[in-house]
Write a structure and sequence with these properties.
By secondary structure, this protein is mostly helical. The protein contains 16 helices and no strands. Helix 6 crosses helix 7. 25% of the residues are buried.
Amino acid sequence: MGLEFTYKDVFRAVRFGASPKKVWLAFRGILYAFFFYVIFSYAGFLVSGWTFKNIWQTYRFIPCPFYNAQLTWYGWLLWGIGALIVTFFYFVTLTAISKVTYERLRGDEFYEAKEAWKFALKNWKGTFLSPIYLIVFIAILILVGLVFGLVGRIPHVGQILIGLMSLPIFAGAFFVVYLTIVLFVVIVIAPAIVATTESDTFDTLFEGFSVLYDQTWRFFLWEFILGLCTLLAMFVFALLMKYTLSLTKWAIGVWAGPREWWNVMWNNGKWYLYLPFAPTFLLKWFPSLVAPGKFLALGALKTYPGVTTQFGAFLLGMSFYTIAFLIVGYGVSVFAAGQTIIYTILVKLKDEKNLLEMKEETFEAEEIEITPPEAKVEEEKPKKKRGRPKGSTTKKKTTTTKKKTKTTAKKKTTKKKK
């Protein structure tokens, strides 16, 4: 499935992302990241003095320390570990989706999701470590700038030194700003780089600098187009899911009976899907776009019915989380597929190299001749017996007889002479 190598190909990311295989990879990565984030974030809140009940009533499954929370330093450390694991699965998931997209662009429609996930885990260093190295380098440069502040405190001499070093300091600050932009580029496009070229950490960083330097305006403009396409695709999919849930609620409620168990179960199930750090702001400004028909429900649990209804509401709430993960997973799939398309086109434009025509390294198998067993029997030589061979004894006998004949002939000639 070829590309035109123009901006028109970016719009095809919506169709490439609408693949059950890629959406499943995105859902799998989100589920793993969600699992580890819940564990470490809950641990961070618990060691900071929160009770499990308070965390659950305030945040449900997704504790966010930036919203109405105060953590200790070790609580922040545990939360940071969870956030780092989420970042790891972000790069692994996008690499796997980019690999499937790349193989499909090359014509392999049956590339397995399992192989793509193994590939992403095998090449995790090229995607995960490249932005971390950049962050460490930026932090070192900022630390050097802080040291110059201490130098300026030296009486009489410090101010003069800072004045003399002002231009190099400005150059270093500008370099930090440039590296920050490169960091954004690497975070966005590193999975596509590794999926298409299997590059290591250094090569991934080099490609990030190259894309930013050679194709600056194309990169940012196409990323803007891809972002709009991703949001639009997620909105359409979420709208379809909204009407799907509305139809489900209506169909089951027709013959649910007078006990109102279905309405209670539905409302209590929505209570579990609670994002305290987002809907208050988003629903205020974009209520019709983000949650048409009040898809997200805020507030406390409606009522406390029987045990079976409560457990059914819990399972219904988990299904709501699954639907939310599928919506986000479709957006991630479109985003990763678009990054693969963008990087493939940019490499074609800046390096005049078509990544879709690159041949994989193959190793030629050694040719092994298979001979039938009858030929082997004929080719086998007779086994040698111990001792002297027969041929050597016959040769010795012939040599001895020749010697005897020679001696007898000499004796006859001597007799004749006499």
